[in-house]
Amino acid sequence: MAETVLETHGLTMRFGGVTASDNVNFKLKARELRCLIGPNGAGKSTFFKCVTGLLTPSEGHVYMRGQDVTGWQPHQIASLGVGIKTQTPNVMDALSVHENIWLAARRFNDRAEASARADDIIDRLALGPIARTDLGQLAHGERQRVELGLVAVADPWLVLLDEPAAGMSADDVARMTQIIHDMTRTAAVVIVEHDMQFIRSVAETVTVFHQGAVLMEDHVDKVMSDATVRAVYLGKKA
Ligand SMILES: Nc1ncnc2c1ncn2[C@@H]1O[C@H](COP(=O)(O)OP(=O)(O)OP(=O)(O)O)[C@@H](O)[C@H]1O
Description:
37% of the residues lie in helices and 27% in strands. It is of the alpha/beta class. It folds into 2 domains: 1-81 and 157-164 and 173-238, 3-Layer(aba) Sandwich (Rossmann fold); 87-155, Helicase, Ruva Protein, domain 3 (Orthogonal Bundle). The protein is globular, with a radius of gyration of 18 Å.
């Protein structure tokens, strides 16, 4: 049986009187791909922030490969081999694509190895034609792809992505789908996403959040046709 790489037990986050994450028990196996969906305010981002260390939960625990990481800082979690892409980009606009990726690779490798890894990622993410272009000059979809490259270069076994397809063209989304599928050869991937087309193309199992809690967890087709889910989510959005 595949190893459990991410697990939460009774994860709860309160902001004053608001329970943004409500007793969430979540489990993800090695190389599994999971989308987290739900209407605005359902608690997806709060759950994501608790798992990535941006927030410390009010109650409950987060385990990664069996280790209790509750309350750890994002950089500590990253150092376990976890790739995190938040909505706040961690890139340098005045440096080229290659330089940004090389710098990310250099954090974990010597200079020669960093160069080899950067070349490999540029190849795998089809960034060759823009490798020498400064980040500041890239289109939105290209930037998102570079940010995914910064995550992939660390060779993570768990990847946590917050809205990777936001604001992208159909072509960019298709490319992003392919890259994420490639990632699942070596990593489990969790994606918080709004884009239904992207979710349908990328996901098998989705977890639906509603009012901070998990409403349903099933194959994307089943979830999309579920009456309760449609009422709370698709009814409003799709
Ligand atoms: N820092 C905060 N302080 C107070 N309330 C918060 C805070 N962050 C989130 N909330 C509240 O917690 C609830 C869940 O919000 P959250 O952002 O996690 O939902 P979401 O599913 O990610 O929504 P969206 O799809 O709009 O990003 C909402 O009611 C929100 O107003």
